Each structure stands twice: as C-alpha cells, then as structure tokens.
Amino acid sequence: MAVQASSAKLDARALRSDFPIFEQLIHGKPLAYLDSANSSQKPRQVLDAMTTYYETSYANVHRAVYVLGERATAGLEGAREKVRGFLNAPSADEVIFVRNATEGLNLVAYSWGGSNLGRGDAVVVTELDHHSNFVPWQYIARRRGAEFRVLPLDEDAEVDYSGLDEIARDCNVKVVAANLVSNSLGTIADLGPLVRWAHEQGAIFVCDAAQAAPHVQLDVQALGVDFLAISGHKMCGPSGIGALWGRGELLRSMEPFLLGGHMISSVSIEKTTWGEIPHKFEAGTSPIVEAVGLGAAVDYLQRVGLDAIEAHEHELAAYALGRLAEVPGITLYGPPAERRAGVVSFNLDGIHPHDVAQLLDGHGVAIRAGHHCCQPLMRRLGVTATNRASFYLYTVPEEIDQLVDGLHAVREVFA
Ligand SMILES: Cc1ncc(COP(=O)(O)O)c(C=O)c1O
Question: If you average pLDDT over residues 4-16, what whole number do you get?
Fold first, then answer.
C-alpha cells in the first residue's frame, strides 16, 4: 500500500501504484488521465473494500436479524460515521446518503425550498455554479413564485459580492447556494462573507462541495453553512453514492423528498408518519456497498492528507499554467494557481474544444471538452465550450508535459 502519513508531502508517483487503471497503455501510450474533475480514478483500497464486503458481509441493511444483516448494517453505518468525520459534522444522523451531489442539492431544493419559498422571497446563486446547484434552485424558485438572483463574476472570473446590498434591499433572501470549488475554473471561493451575509438576511446557505471534497479539507462547522453536498465518485469512491449534510434542526423540520420503504415510522390507510433522520430521507434500499466504498475512499484521502492533496494540486496548477502558456494561440481561464484547485480550462484559437480533446486521445491524454454543466459561465466567458485538464493526487507533471506535447501536435494538424 503506497498510502503515506498525512503530514508528508504527497508522493504522486508512489500513489499511482494504488490505481490499477494506470497499468495499461492507451493507443500504445501511457495514460495521462487529466479528467479527474469529471470523475476520479479508484485505488485498490476502495475496490478491495467493496469486493471483500460483497464476498463476506453482504445482505440488505436495517431489516435483517441474522448475522450477515447485522454485519451489512454495521458496514453502512460505519461508512456514515466516516463521512461524518470527513465533514466534521456534529452528528452522523445529519449525514444522508444520496446518489450524488445533484440528488443532495435537489433534496434541499424540493424539500426545504418547496415548503419555505414563496412570492416575495428570493434565491441567490452565482454565475460560477454548476447546473446541479443552479437549475434546481431556478426551477423551485419559479415554481414557488420566488425571485431567482445570480451573482455575476468580476474581471478575474471570481464571484462579485458588490451587489449584495442591493439584493438585500430589494428581496427577502431565503436561500443562498454556491460552490466552494468551481469545476470549470478551479476557483476556490472565499465563501465566508457570503455565508455571513446569507445568515444576516435570515437565509439558509447551501454549499455545493462536489468539487471541493476531493481537494480541500472540509469542515461544515467552520464553514458555517446549513447544507453541504458531495459526490463519492469525484473523491476516489464509487459512483452511485454521495452525501448530503444538513443541520439537524433543519432536516427534522423538513418534509421528506422521496417516499416509500424504510423512511416511515408507521403507515396506515389514514396516515403515514416519517422516521427519524437520516432514515426519513433514505427511502428504499440504500447504496450499501457504494457507501462502504465511500468510507474506504474517506480513509484513503485522510491517510494521504487533504492538506497534502491541496498543496500538490496548487503545484500542478502552477506548473500547468506555465507550460500551457507556451502553446501558441492558447487562452487560459480562471484565477492564479494559488487560488485554484487542480483545474485548468483553456481554448486553442480557431480549434473546437471537441476536436482538441479527440485528437489528444490519440496521444493517450484524456481531458474534458464542453460546457462543463456551466452554460451561464460559458456565456460570461464569451465561449460555448472550453477544454479542461484536471488533476488529482495521482497526477504527475509528466502527464502535463504529455498534454502540452499533444497540444503542439493538435496545432500542427490545424496549421
Ligand atoms: C461543482 C459541481 N457541482 C455538482 C456536480 C454534480 O456532481 P454529480 O454529477 O456527481 O451529482 C459536479 C459534477 O461535475 C460539480 O463539479
């Protein structure tokens, strides 16, 4: 196992040996996987934890009285406790397993927003937000007759807080929702002033941490937010599992989101009552093995150390910004390396991002091309799409060199 002590500088080359995906060639070339913001690769520790659980402890949870059922339940609830620790949440009951961050954010929009928003109220999001934290709020605001306000970006493509006073004068702000790390530009937001402002308005603050959880140390109590959503697949865990953390008093006061088995206290023809949190929000059979995988991913990240991961990504972002600037006709988007996680968006003059990404694949380089589920941001940048290279704890500088060599070759094709 290549995982190291948490305070050490991260050794990406050693960590790579934990990831079986890198044991292959792509088009005869070493794989430069620069699409981790889209979804991360999985270490053996996570894969093994899931296989072992299937092989030794699998049964349905919370409803079996035999030994396997008890083991299975302990696995699921153990994973919940790990996620609680990862987020520094006060209680594991406040951690709800969902399919992904999108489902967590929809849960809050439908359940909290559906009951608490009305005419004269406002929801505030930002131009930097992913559709997962933009569209549910836009939709529920419109459905409830509330206003939908979007904080614009400034010249440096960072969220401009200068219009907050005007919004406070005009509207009864009930929800502020924003990401902590942008998936398109990698920007690490300074959410403190926005969270304080939201609470001064009597609003709740919903944090989309899908892109933050893999890269920066999270602490829901220090952030002071009211809800926070993460996705397992972006942080070395499996797909099909995410978590929503919410303040207990808010979760207890909310209506359920999905209805059915497991989430009830009692059911009769006349009336159904809801179970306690987190079960009230976990209708149906849980993503049991996925939760165990997420728990193993949390263990893995904590052993590597989130501070070491963040420092590694700042280094890679600085290196990438420097190397990419050598490519003729390139436009780089986003803040300086010290204010971004390992994400770099760019365009090559006159070459469509999809062509760039497709040609790079022939060089063994995997990057994303598109609007990155951020069409309002793309509009603000004056483009329809960008290329995006994104890095993680297993990324080494040679992969960035491979990208830059590939981009020179792409330019030759279009010369
Ligand atoms: C910032 C951000 N928010 C939300 C999401 C949605 O994550 P998921 O598709 O896992 O629900 C993503 C995924 O790219 C993201 O980057």
Answer: 80
CA angle 326, 330, 334 (to 5 degrees): 100
Q: Is the CB of 184 within 6 Å of ligand 1?
A: no
Give the 3-state secondary structure of residue 411. helix
Pairing label, strands 227-231, 242-246: antiparallel
Cα Rg of the chain, angstroms: 22
Residue in the structure block whose two tokens are 């979007």: 150
Which residue's alpha carbon is at the smallest distance from atom 9 of ligand 1?
102
Nearest to 393 by CA among 45, 10, 9, 33: 10
Tens-place pLDDT, residues 398-413:
999 999 999 999 999 9
Domains and CATH numbers, the chain: 12-30+305-414 (3.90.1150.10), 49-302 (3.40.640.10)
The alpha carbon of 35 and the centre of ligand 1 are apart by a number of angstroms equal to 13
CA 67 / ligand 1 centre spacing (Å) = 37
* 159 DSSP 8-state letter: B
37 CA distance to ligand 1 middle (Å) = 9
Nearest to 347 by CA among 362, 369, 326, 364: 369
pLDDT tens sequence across 257-283? 999 999 999 999 999 999 999 999 999
Reported as half-sphere exposure (CB side, CA atoms, 13 A), residue 255 has a value of: 12
Residue 373 designated active-site: yes
Q: Is the CB of 231 under 6 A from ligand 1?
A: yes
DSSP string, 179-235: ESB-TTT-BB---HHHHHHHHHTT-EEEEE-TTTTTTS---HHHHT-SEEEEEGGGT
Sign of CA dihedral 73, 75, 76, 80: positive
- Closest atom of ligand 1 relative to the 372 alpha carbon: 14
Please tell me if the CB atom of residue 106 comes closer than 6 angstroms to any atom of ligand 1. Answer: no
pLDDT tier at 7 (50, 70, 90 boundaries)? low
The pLDDT tens digits of the residues spanning 68-99 come to 999 999 999 999 999 999 999 999 999 999 99
Segment 116-170, tens digit of pLDDT:
999 999 999 999 999 999 999 999 999 999 999 999 998 888 899 999 999 999 9
